[in-house]
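for the writeup, i need someone to sanity check this before i put it in the appendix. the sequnce is what the collaborator sent (i think, or maybe the updated version? ugh). structure was predicted straight from it, no edits. if anything looks off just tell me and ill rerun, i have time this weekend
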Amino acid sequence: MYTIIRTATTKTAARFITLLALTLFGTLAKAQGFTLAPLSYPYDALAPVIDERAMRIHHGKHQQAYVDNLNKAIAAAPPLAGLSLEVLLAQISKSSDAVRNNGGGHWNHTFFWESMTRPGQGGAPSAELLAAITRDFGSLDQFKAAFRAAGLGRFGSGWARSWIS
């Protein structure tokens, strides 16, 4: 069954984020703090859908602010120093709002950048995935509408995810 996350504070979402982070990214922390990894593609690679200027601002300034603020929050909480982002997310309910918001923002953006493809390189879901979407949502278009509504219904962030449970 497919589930659309409406909030990143549920236990299921936290488990999913932790598992996916461990699987995809490994440890993102360094002894001196978190850093912003360079994109794996040029800033203009997603044009015309997302232009180079927007990419430079969103990656180089917006996400960098999450990284900087996460490092400040960690500095204010010495027991958290040296923990990986995955470990922080796994125990997010014990963390301050600053760690939660900035750690989550940093992870979300990293996941977002790594999930993007150049225009025209995406494609239709596999037959198996499409069958599950059709079973659970009625059609791909209905899934897209539900996914869009979930993102738009999340104040301030617009983040929504879907996964098989």
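Residues 28 and 84 are 6 Å apart (CA to CA). The chain has one domain: 7-127.
thx in advance!!
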